[in-house]
Write a structure and sequence with these properties.
- This protein is of the alpha/beta class.
- Helix content is about 35%, strand content about 15%.
- The chain is built from 14 helices and 12 strands.
- It has helices spanning about 15-20, 45-50, 70-80, 95-105, 120-130, 145-150, 175-180, 245-260, 265-275, 280-295, 315-325, 325-330, 345-355, 405-420, and strands at about 85-90, 110-115, 135-140, 155-160, 185-190, 220-225, 240-245, 300-305, 335-340, 360, 370-375, 390-400.
- The strands form 2 sheets. Strands 1-7-6-5-4-2-3 form a 7-stranded mixed β-sheet, with helices on both faces. A 5-stranded mixed β-sheet has the order 8-9-12-11-10, with helices on one face.
- Helix 10 (about 280-295) runs parallel beside helix 14 (about 405-420).
- The protein is globular.
- The model is unreliable at about 205-215 (pLDDT under 50).
Length: about 425
């Protein structure tokens, strides 16, 4: 039996018309923020387009995981921020670290990681990578010679972190990259702290032209937890992996595809909205953190202040050489620092100090508008000796966007509550 086809959309049932309505808004709409495109399915005009369209070079759209106008725009703006040429977006900073490792390492390979690296990244090496037959070795981030001595013919990847997680040591990043480049080993930097603002990861000496060629000294890969400063609201989980080398990027991108990694359009929108103010926010966090760090440095309960922009901090000279020219010679740093509470105070007293804070909230992460505090048990986080750290209990602060004087008064009352006048 032959059925007549409906002549117009109006001849279809309502349920069908609500799905297949053919209205398209006129082109040419331009606004300060880019549009938010949400898609798993992408529609092709014909079979030839379906078979020929390419997603790897961003010349077309094939499936939501492979990119939409919203994610493509965010990737390009992040490249502009960090000085890279290619970017993939992942669901978190840790996912960025995992994407790099899974793309570049195979059984029998070796990865070197600084002892003060982000803890979950080390856990990944000890867990999944080890089970896949990848060996990991921890090196001293403050001793380039130790890094050089630990590179073997099996070393395929060296992770860098500037400064180190929690203890904030700033390494000689330029020398570390030189060592790895001389030995033909790929370098990947966790650039969350620098955020593309404190220093240029792909042009560490400032002699590159942004083309990715020539002799400029820079890392091969920048991994970034966009959860922090690019988002700025404490409400987005996202990461990025940025490169300049097309071949290296394609290895990362194909692994990204095979793992099914992707980000939501609304999260991409949130980061796009926040990016124009990231420089202003970063500097505000920085200035507030330095003011409070200098004040805490004078308090009797504080045995050591760990902030790379302060003269006595481990690696300060390296921070000054790399980041010190920014902001009219004031340098640039994230709004993050740690203090070592004097060893004469117990863990219970340190916990009381943290619990007594009213404006500083107990919570992980950083880079958002609210100031945060976390006490750490350092012995569980380091395998190598730390003679540059004084005895005591470490507390990390992330400074938000509150008034500095209100934060200082909060610190003052909590110090008095936990440690008294001494």
């Amino acid at each position: 039996m032959q059925h007549d086809q409906p002549a117009t959309l109006g001849d279809l049932h309502l349920a069908t018309r609500l799905v297949h309505h053919d209205y398209l808004p006129p082109p040419g709409f331009v606004a300060p923020q880019p549009g938010v495109y949400k898609a798993s399915t992408v529609i092709f005009p014909n079979v030839a387009a379906m078979r020929s369209r390419e997603w790897k070079d961003k010349s077309g759209y094939t499936y939501g995981l492979h990119g939409t106008p919203t994610t493509f725009i965010l990737e390009e703006r992040l490249c502009a921020l960090e000085g890279g040429l290619q970017c993939v977006l992942v669901p978190s900073g840790l996912a960025a670290i995992a994407n790099v490792g899974l793309a570049l390492l195979k059984p029998g390979d070796e990865v070197l990681i600084p002892d003060n690296a982000y803890g979950p990244g080390k856990d990944l090496a000890q867990g999944e990578l080890a089970r896949f037959g990848v060996r990991h070795v921890l090196y001293d981030p403050l001793d380039p010679a130790d890094l050089a001595a630990r590179i073997t013919p099996a070393t395929r990847l060296v992770w860098l972190e500037a400064p180190g997680s929690v203890t904030m040591e700033f390494p000689d990043l330029c020398e570390q990259v030189r060592i790895c480049r001389e030995r033909g080993v790929i370098t990947a930097l966790d650039n969350t702290w620098g955020a593309g603002l404190a220093f240029a990861p792909f042009d560490l000496l400032g002699d590159g032209d942004g083309s990715g060629g020539g002799g400029s000294l820079g890392v091969d890969i920048s991994a970034h937890a966009l959860t922090k400063y690019p988002s700025g609201g404490g409400d987005v989980l996202m990461g990025s992996v940025i490169t300049r080398d097309p071949g290296l990027h394609m290895k990362i991108k194909l692994t990204h595809m095979r793992l099914g990694l992707g980000v939501g359009a609304n999260d991409a929108e949130a980061v796009l909205r926040a990016l124009p103010s990231v420089g202003l926010r970063y500097r505000a966090h920085d200035e507030a953190a330095r003011t409070l760090a200098r004040w805490l440095q004078q308090q009797a309960a504080v045995a050591q202040l760990l902030h790379p922009a302060l003269p006595d901090a481990p690696g300060h000279a390296h921070w000054k050489a790399l980041c010190g020219a920014a902001h009219g010679g004031q340098g640039a740093a994230a709004g993050l620092f740690s203090v070592m509470i004097d060893a004469r105070y117990t863990q219970d007293q340190v916990d009381t100090f943290c619990d007594s804070l009213r404006l500083f909230k107990l919570g992980y992460s950083w880079g958002g508008p609210m100031s945060l505090v976390v006490p750490y048990q350092l012995s569980s986080m380091r395998t190598r000796p730390t003679p540059h750290l004084r005895p005591g209990t470490l507390v990390r602060f992330s400074i938000g966007l509150e008034a500095v004087e209100d934060l200082r008064q909060d610190l003052e009352q909590a110090l008095a509550s936990a440690f008294g006048g001494a």
